[in-house]
Amino acid sequence: MTAAFLEVREVSKRYGPTLALDRVSFDVQEGEVFGLLGPNGAGKTTLLSIVSCLLGPTSGEVRLLGRPVAPSDRQIRCLIGIVPQELALYSELTAQENLCFFGELYGIRGPELRRRVRRILAAIGLEDKANDRVRTFSGGMKRRLNLGVALVHGPRLLLLDEPTVGVDPQSRNRIFEEVRRLNGEGMTLVYTSHYMEEVQALCSRIGIMDRGRLAACDTLPRLLQTLPGTIRFRVTPLTPALRERLKELPDALLCEREGQLLELECSDVKLALVELMRLLQQEGAALAHLDIEEPNLERVFLHLTGRQLRD
């Protein structure tokens, strides 16, 4: 069996008495966009710091292309780009100067560096701001340049830690477009965010972290299957015979609420709704009220991590 592109194996990280990561394991395949969700303090940033060679784990191991990831391994670090949550830019330098500076740190110079800088400025929509100092940029422009800096050395793995925090819709859309373009060219990405819709739109698989542990990891359809859907309805007339037949609907659990409100919990809302409508037609009953609640990523997230506020 071929090893995964990125392997995280039983990774734990301790800061004194605090266990920031607790035996986290998952794989990322080459060319995949893998999403990481979690409330504040879940351990996402600590995990990305270990994967990007900025931190060593207390125990466990990370492998990239079958090779152990370690802070001392400069060759493996050249394969990784990271877009940190905090902006990593020099505000007194121009956009172009920032890209050149970080490119030179990786040994890229001359015409090759200039070519890369021009291409990245075009990709992130900052061509016309190339010679403007970063301190004059909006938040969205800085976020886009932050992404560009992570790409200048041509990494094979890109780690994005909350890359759209506080940005305008136009900049967020440009970052989405660039993520999709990079992935379309074969780059592997790990994407963390608090925004469910971002992860849902961009990622083929999703890991949900909570209190340093991986609570779930799967494709979106499989994650959604962990929660039932709900059909809430009222019917007239609600006869005893109809009530009994509703209880016998396949793959559905009937609950009765106040005011003759009925609820069907079901794994497949569409199928259950078809069966419900067929039954009502047979019994000569009509819908007086209908409300459908299908599982979504936010509901799964709150189910796994709880609704308690986190600092």
Per CATH, the superfamily of the largest domain is: P-loop containing nucleotide triphosphate hydrolases
Radius of gyration: 25 Å
Distance between the termini: 42 Å
Order of helices and strands: EEEHEEHEHHHEHEHEEHEHEEHEH
From the 3D structure, determine the CATH topology of the largest domain.
Rossmann fold
Major sheet description: 6 strands, mixed
Instruction: Name the CATH architecture of the largest domain.
Output: 3-Layer(aba) Sandwich
* SS elements, strand count: 14
Q: Which class do the helix and strand fractions yield?
A: alpha/beta
Helix percentage range: 25-40%
Average pLDDT confidence is 93
- Strand order in space, largest sheet: 6-7-8-3-9-10
Please sum up the structure shown:
The protein is an alpha/beta fold and 311 residues long. It is 35% helix and 28% strand.
Can you put this structure into words, describing what you see?
The protein is α/β, with parallel strands linked by helices and 311 residues long. The chain has two domains: 6-219, P-loop containing nucleotide triphosphate hydrolases (Rossmann fold, 3-Layer(aba) Sandwich); 229-294, Alpha-Beta Plaits (2-Layer Sandwich), CATH 3.30.70. Helix content is 35%, strand content 28%. It has helices spanning 44-51, 74-77, 95-105, 110-123, 139-151, 169-184, 196-202, 220-224, 240-247, 269-283, 297-305; strands spanning 6-15, 18-28, 33-37, 59-64, 67-68, 80-83, 157-161, 188-192, 205-210, 213-218, 229-236, 252-256, 262-266, 286-293. It has a six-stranded mixed sheet with strand order 6-7-8-3-9-10, sandwiched between helices. It is elongated and about 80 Å long. The two termini are 42 Å apart.
